[in-house]
């Protein structure tokens, strides 16, 4: 499994962080992923950090950097439900109030008032991930 997965739902990009610990080691790579979204002129980004049990300040800094850049261009970032440890870290660092946080990807995408058929796209993404996992198990 990759550290990050991307789902594009028309004009909304969902970046899924597949890490239990998001640290400075992964922060630069994640910042590159988000910077690519900016370069592609996406202005609506959802970051799904449900799998993260820990995020350090460097990783949070990458998210803040992108949010500030998007705000300058008329865009925004939404966060999908963070683990209680992550919420505590975000509160201590002062970034929790900076982000809109949602329980699900669907709620975060819909908060952009987008007419995207979210469930259909997410089901396709899940099916693709299942096929890839099955292919990895098959003998070559």
In short:
This protein has helices at residues 24-39, 57-72, 84-93, 105-110, 118-137; strands at residues 4-9, 12-17, 21-22, 44-48, 54-55, 76-80, 100-102.
Which secondary-structure class do the elements indicate? alpha/beta
Order of helices and strands: EEEHEEHEHEHH
| Order of strands, widest sheet | 1-2-4-6-7
Which descriptor suits the 3D outline? Answer: globular
The tally of structural domains comes to 1
Main sheet specs: 5 strands, mixed
What is the averaged pLDDT score?
82
Percentage of residues in strands: 15-25%
| Secondary-structure arrangement, i.e. CATH architecture | 2-Layer Sandwich
Radius of gyration: 15 Å
The first-to-last residue Cα distance is 18 Å
Full CATH superfamily name: STAS domain
CATH topology assignment: Transcription Regulator spoIIAA
Q: Briefly, what CATH class?
A: Alpha Beta
Number of strands: 7
What share of the residues lie within helices?
A: 40-55%
Model regions low in confidence, pLDDT < 50 over at least 5 residues? 127-140
Task: Walk me through what this model shows.
The protein is an alpha/beta fold. The protein has one domain (4-137): 2-Layer Sandwich (Transcription Regulator spoIIAA). 49% of the residues lie in helices and 21% in strands. The chain contains five helices and seven strands. The chain has helices at residues 24-39, 57-72, 84-93, 105-110, 118-137, and strands spanning 4-9, 12-17, 21-22, 44-48, 54-55, 76-80, 100-102. Helix 1 (24-39) runs parallel beside helix 2. The model is unreliable at 127-140 (pLDDT under 50).
């Amino acid at each position: 499994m990759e550290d990050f997965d991307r789902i594009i739902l028309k004009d909304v990009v969902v970046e899924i962080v597949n890490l239990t610990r998001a640290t400075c080691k992964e922060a630069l790579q994640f910042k590159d992923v988000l910077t690519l979204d900016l370069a592609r002129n996406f202005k609506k980004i959802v970051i799904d950090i449900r799998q993260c049990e820990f995020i350090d300040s460097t990783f949070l800094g990458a998210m803040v950097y992108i949010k500030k850049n998007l705000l300058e261009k008329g865009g925004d970032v939404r966060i999908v439900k963070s683990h209680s440890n992550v919420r505590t870290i975000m509160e201590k660092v002062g970034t929790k109030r900076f982000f809109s946080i949602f329980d699900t990807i669907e709620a975060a995408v819909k908060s952009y008032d987008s007419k995207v058929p979210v469930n259909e796209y997410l089901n396709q993404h899940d099916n693709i991930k299942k096929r890839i996992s099955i292919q990895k198990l098959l003998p070559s």
